[in-house]
Amino acid sequence: MSRLKTLVEERRGVDPLRGGHALCQGCGIPMVVRVVLGTITRPTVVVNATGCLEVATTRFPTTAWNVPWVHVAFENAAAVASGIEAAQRALARRESLPAAEDVAIVVFAGDGGTYDIGMQALSGALERGHRFLFVCYDNEAYMNTGVQRSGATPFGAGTTTSPVGLESFGKAQRRKDMTAIAVAHHVPYVAQAASTYWHDLSLKVERAAAADGASFVNVLTDCPLGWGHEPRLAPQVIAAAVETRFWPLYEVVDGRYRLTHEPARTQPIERWLDGQKRFAHLLRPENAGLVEEIQHAVDRDWAELRSLCRGDANGAAA
Amino acid sequence: MSAPDPQLLTGGEAVAHALCQIQPDVVPVYPITPQTPIIQTFSSLVADGAAHTEIVNVESEHSAMSAAIGAALAGARTATATSSQGLALMAEVVYIAASMRAPLTMAVGNRALSGPINIHCDHSDSMLVRDSGVAQLFAENAQEAYDLMVMAPRIAEHPDVSLPVLVCQDGFTITHAAEPVTMLSDDEVRAFVGEYRTRVQPLLDTEHPATHGPFAMPDYYFEFRRAQAAALEACTRVVADVADEFARLTGRENHAVEEYRLEGAESVVVALGSSAGTVKDVVDELRDDGEPVGLLKIRSFRPFPTTALRVALDGARDVIVLDRADSPGGAPPLAAEVAFAMAGLDVTLHSHVYGLGGRDLHPEAIRQVLHGEAPRYVGVRGEPCPA
Predict the structure, then answer these.
(1) CA torsion B263→B267→B272→B276, rounded to 10°?
(2) Architecture of domain A2-311
(3) Mean pLDDT of all residues in chain B?
(4) Do B25 and A123 touch (CB under 8 A)?
């Protein structure tokens, strides 16, 4: 439990993200930010894409940030990080860095700023191999603008732009596999994590931050407002995503896949769908076929991932 | 110290050599015609070790300006370059760069905007970011492109300014045409430009964390915008000071406006960019014929030299504004500026649009313009001539 101790200790006496911000009660984002920044022991610069986190933490003239923080726009966080990293290299070469210690560069972006509008800049930055960590807090829709569907919204979810209606069952398309897209860039470290699996997330951030190059961590993060669950149930909801294998926890180190958490037993996808208003319609009898379809996709993806993994959940090489 | 002999350089090469002498820390850039020779030349200079710059070969102009903001705010001297669609794509971030007071320089090879797609010169790309809050300086030739590029970091990084400065040169006409260019020595440029100092609290100074780019609602947004306007107002004085200093060093004039044979001029042309050179030739010819004509060349389009222009044009009878960009349904951008500057003066304003998409402006057309014989759109097919 020493990791927990480290995480709850205020780094150098100052919490990088302080309370008093305006994120919703029960929002999973600040927990992700705190685990990420609490894990990285180096001084850190934060780049933030437009979204809930940015809007709710920097209402001028206030700020919740105790680390250098920059926001430019929605789609370009990875490009901004590229420029900071290039500046870091240039200033290091002429021995003009303001800080003596090596500075980590961390991007936080939602799924919109990662999967959709931010993907080009992210892809470019990953391909160029800048030394930075991109953390996606993936809450599966455009929550800041009021729950619109994104490339990360799962099949069948009701959102304000994929509404459930007499002739619609919600989003008709599958979600994009952004983690796989990041892997395809041959960066040294990619992982998929979940907000309430903080120990797993923290281990991944540690490896990502130590990577000599670009790294990407995709963190499933609950949004009580957009998902339609009680804030206090966030751990159970996130656990359902992981334990039903809807959201497997794994990492890809230099191209080698490894599951970091093996669900104990097979659980039906209904456990994930149940308890979230965006999926409520799927559990009606007439939509049994859709649930079957979702289960089938989860099983197929899991089998595919399993076949890619060369080691077991405890890290031992097969 | 290199000898001050002129060298045969294109405008693009001249600006690349200026960049090499400035030695920016970071240059994020994306290729686009007619800017490409700038970054190609600069890249080969860096590859040969002549400059120590981190070139970031980004995947779009949007990312070029985004990375430039990141680098400038991180504490690095930063430059980039673009043209046309590239400037259009990055326009969103150009506005933000200005609002974040990112002191960076950008070479622009002016080119028409699509559509239809075209690669040749007009100023519609620059005019697209007219209201972004950046400074825009226009060169008449390769020499001025070089000079303005050397001046640009001093203007951009001045604490009262702290804004992006765009150094604009006409695509192909300047970027690709070789002319004699007299460069300063590397040492002179380095001494002129000085160390990178910024009023911005650098992101990489983690001991002093600052929040850059916060969310400003109706209770503060207006103050941010007003502060930006003040920065461009201050920029007028800074451009003058830097031009004075540059003139002392080189003997070359690069102030916000250039008055060409305005003494006793009754008809005065106002123009930006390379066409000013052609207008000068025509003015010389007509002056030889005894016609009282002159030229007022605008180098600094932003900040616009409203006061200087009003003083220079007071006494003229006809002012003829040549715009190399149009504003369909309204006044062309330069004409609108001149009209604003001249309000209340007893002067007749004539507005012409010419040269869109690289259409040449011939001396004969300028003579017609000066004689009131040219249509509003100069050099376009099927345009009815004035009665």
Answers:
(1) -70
(2) 3-Layer(aba) Sandwich (3.40)
(3) 96
(4) no
